[in-house]
Amino acid sequence: MTALVTFGETMLRLSPPRGERLETAREFEVQAGGAESNVAVAAARLGRDAAWFSKLPDSPLGRRVVGELRSHGVGTDAVVWSDDERQGVYYLEHGVAPRPTNVVYDRTDAAVTTLSVAELDLDPVREAAVCYTSGITPALSETLRETTTDVLAAAQDAGTTTAFDLNYRSKLWSPEAAAAAYRDLFDSIDVLFAAQRDAELVLGRDGDAESVARGLAADYDFETVVVTCGADGSLAFSDGDVYEQGVYEAETHDAIGTGDAFVGGYLAKHLDGGDVAESLRWAAATASFKRTIDGDIAVVTPEDIERVIADEGDGISR
């Protein structure tokens, strides 16, 4: 049995050297990046058995994605291959003040947008301990919205714990469209991750993190709600109890993928038998460590995270 199964889009990230602009760059660094595969990689590198599935073109670009994920120990046997569709790409231009970091997506009509549940073997999902996806997946197409609904329902019906990160992206849909889609999925979700800003913007949940977490848990019967608050740390509400966690200080080299590292660290410790407080610590430490690493993926080890926690204790709220 695979401990963690994730599903969603993974793109190729192309980045010019730091200090160069996209419009004049002559070379690009290539890496794989996607919320759900980032979570799977973090969990796998932290010692958990993790797999990811999606739909990819049977091309050098699609195989490049699978090769990179496998190199980090993530299972990809459930990937659906397409003969005539394309691989999504995004371009990242690193910025420094006053020039902001710029992201340009080229993902329209990517193979993953046509993935239907009829193409999938759902046995890995039914047999997993945890199934995870994010709000990016149902935003990509109506087909994927239906597939996300079916996969989460199948997982929950089989006794698999389902985990979901709101992960709102304004370039993909409006807050109103996202809210409607999220609410359709909530009955099939056990553990919810939400940035406080997303809960306010999309779900209309204002107030402090504790009131947001308590309100969501009460309204939708989630087992656990984890609210992230940026530099102010994170908070979880589970089984009537509240847990708070500060951030761990880090020098930021690349912030892309920090939220995915947080989720991956949390689920890795949870799957290792950790309680909510321990899982939050691992989440915060993994997110902090990721900020020091270039690329979307948290290239971490359990020893790295144990050292961060040992050096910094419970983290520092800033």
UniProtKB/TrEMBL annotation:
Keyword Nucleotide-binding: yes
One of the record's GO molecular function terms: ATP binding
Keyword Lipid biosynthesis annotated: no
SUPFAM superfamilies named in the record: Ribokinase-like
Source organism, top-level taxon: Archaea
Key words, A-Z: ATP-binding, Kinase, Nucleotide-binding, Transferase
UniProt cross-references to Pfam families, sorted A to Z: PfkB
Domain Carbohydrate kinase PfkB residue range list: 1-297
CDD domains for this protein: KdgK
Family: Belongs to the carbohydrate kinase PfkB family.
NCBIfam families associated with the record: KDG_KDGal_kin_Halo (NF041332)
UniProt protein name: Phosphofructokinase / 2-keto-3-deoxygluconate kinase (KDG kinase)
